[in-house]
Amino acid sequence: MRFRKQALVIATGMAMAATAQAGSPLMLPAMVVDVTVQGLRPDTEHQLLTAIKASPTPDAGELLRSINGVAAVRKGGRALDLLIRGQSETQLNVLLDGGYLHGGCPNRMDPPSSYASIDSYDSVTVIKGNRTVRFGGGGSGGTVLFEREWPEFEADKAVQGEVSASYIENGERAQLGADVAAGGEQGYVRYLGHLTDSDNYEDGDGNAVRSSFESASHTLIGGITLGENTRLEASYEQTRDEDVLFPGAGMDSPYADADNYRVRLNHEFGGTVMQSMEAELYRSEVAHNMDNFSLRPVAAGKSPMEAPSTSDTDGLRLTFAAQAAEIDWTFGADLQRNQRDADRSMVMNGNRKLTGILWPAVEIEQLGLFVEGYQQLSDVDQLGAGLRYDRISARADRAREVVPAGPVTGKTPEDLYGVSADVDDEHNIGGFISWRHNLNAQYVVESSFSRSVRTADATERFLGNNMWLGNPQLDPEKHHQFELALESSGKQLNWRASGWYNDVSDFILRQKQGMVTRYRNVDATLYGAELSASLMVNEQLSLTTALAWLEGENDTDNQPLDQIAPLSLTSTLDYSYGNGNVGVEWILADRQNDVCLSSSACGGLDTRQTPGYGVVNLYSEHRFAGGVTVAAGIDNLLDKAYSSHESVNDVFDPEPVQVAEPGRSGWVRLTAAF
């Protein structure tokens, strides 16, 4: 059975979503992970050795931001919200074991990645840009797939598993994990559990950052073989986060709960045309609350307030694989429905009085049809293409409900918008076409062009705070992207260089206008370049480096887009010996001067022109006999005081605050497999 967590596939080339069906990711040590850049066939892939964050991470967002071209918004010790190539939130398709989960907080205190304990998944696939039409509409920034696999049992071992424990001294964060499975050829039962308890960490200046939290997740999965070619799996996952503190925010989160249900049926036809069928059914139920009194004293001049919310998502996906006319086809249909409801209340002497409706019973439904195919044109040329249609319907059932108290007494959310909350259905069409050409045995060139259409989410459409308003009349974003890449594979040196350009019509811009934050459509442009390289100096010593450059412009207003990562360079030197490895990582980020400040007429989320920084991390790992592994290291060795440019916290009325990263942090992790 394979229990190596943090196996990672990063798809960056033409039609890279083929990784989902072309082969399994490699199972490697936790310190260094092979990033498989995969083409249209398994025999066209090559590997770039890259360093992935070695120290224990509180959620998937912190791990994945160590990937070139991926960043994250830090809002505290937990819940880092992903950005890929300058795009975030619902510009990314994030699937947890095949299903969507949309967080319960309007301010994204709980993005989908916060409910993904990274050690509870067998693989993570990151697809940069729009490379596939299989996993939902939109996805202009990319797709992230957290996946679990059917366990493989040894003939003489019916019970196998892994337990782990880790500790980070800065913040005294302790984590425990277990992954145990029992079964055989006819079926299995698997349990995954993770517990985390963290205090506030200190930044590089020794200041305590409000970042403590408690988290627990439990997952039970069962699978049964119904026949020689048919498998059925079902799972239930429970996540409970408590007492989550957020620095610089007006509120904290006393709880964030999620319950996830999954059913998956796989059938292999064994025919010459129809190859396989997969049916997936999922549901996620999220309950979240934030307040300004249970975990902190109420600020002077403020009233005790809370904002309980729910977000329930149902969905299904039916996918077929076939081979006809020398083309590998994938086609099917999917349905996703998200329902969100959120109030704001004043709390006095245990009594609650409604003062606002944040999400007025919003329901957004997406029905999609998709087809994509890949063809080997010759020994050196491969072609891929996909087409997708989505029908979007949205409504807000409480938009005309009168608010009985508060600063908008007697007004409905629809009054706040100033326009009707009735929304016409959208009919969105997207797709891609891509080409891969082997120049010779060493060099490969790839190009791709895509169109993706992203509909406005519940917050952008219908948020009903008097200081932060949605816009029911928003048009969907239309992204037209082009990418060109050159890669080289050698015995010692592998590298990949790519450049991309994204022209966006009707980009949905969040902007502070006076004292009120609103949304409107503008034209925008995003473009950038990435370079990744790995050099095997000798059999023990490897050097990796990754460079990412990104620009984003609001063309309508001739202003920079906010939350654009600066030029960054990450280099890692790793030395491996018989049973382990040691390494040093150096992270450099340039100053970010192109900003859209909250305090200026631009009205963005940027807080300042962020200075550059350099951070050094050390790590080591040793594997003992009997399946025991000990890893240790020091993050931010020089105790640098710094913040990443993208990190902000902006719950409702406060000005955005840039959250400081942790200072020097020693850590240790123990893992035992049996």
Describe what you observe in this structure.
- The protein has a single domain, classed as Maltoporin, Chain A, CATH 2.40.170.
- The termini are close together.
- Helix content is 3%, strand content 56%.
- The protein is mostly beta strands and 674 residues long.
- The protein has a 22-stranded antiparallel barrel. Strands 1-9-10-7-8 form a 5-stranded mixed β-sheet, with no helix packed on it. A 3-stranded antiparallel β-sheet has the order 4-5-6.
- Strand 36 and strand 37 form a beta hairpin.
- It contains 4 helices and 38 strands.
In terms of topology, how is this protein built?
Elements: E1 8-11, H1 19-22, E2 32-37, E3 46-51, H2 60-64, E4 70-73, E5 81-84, E6 87-88, E7 92-96, E8 99-100, E9 123-128, E10 142-147, E11 159-168, E12 173-184, E13 187-198, E14 201-202, E15 208-209, E16 213-227, E17 230-244, E18 252-268, E19 274-291, E20 305-306, E21 309-324, E22 327-348, E23 351-376, E24 381-396, H3 413-417, E25 426-438, E26 443-454, H4 458-462, E27 464-465, E28 468-469, E29 477-489, E30 493-513, E31 516-536, E32 541-554, E33 559-560, E34 568-577, E35 580-589, E36 613-623, E37 628-635, E38 665-673
Parallel strand pairs: 1-9, 7-10
Antiparallel strand pairs: 2-3, 4-5, 5-6, 7-8, 9-10, 11-12, 11-38, 12-13, 13-16, 14-15, 16-17, 17-18, 18-19, 19-21, 20-22, 21-22, 22-23, 23-24, 24-25, 25-26, 26-29, 27-28, 29-30, 30-31, 31-32, 32-33, 32-34, 34-35, 35-36, 36-37, 37-38
Q: What is the tally of helical segments?
A: 4
- Looking at the structure, what is the overall shape? globular
Helix-strand category: mainly beta
Total strands: the figure is 38
Radius of gyration: 24 Å
Could you tell me the strand content as a percent range?
Answer: over 45%
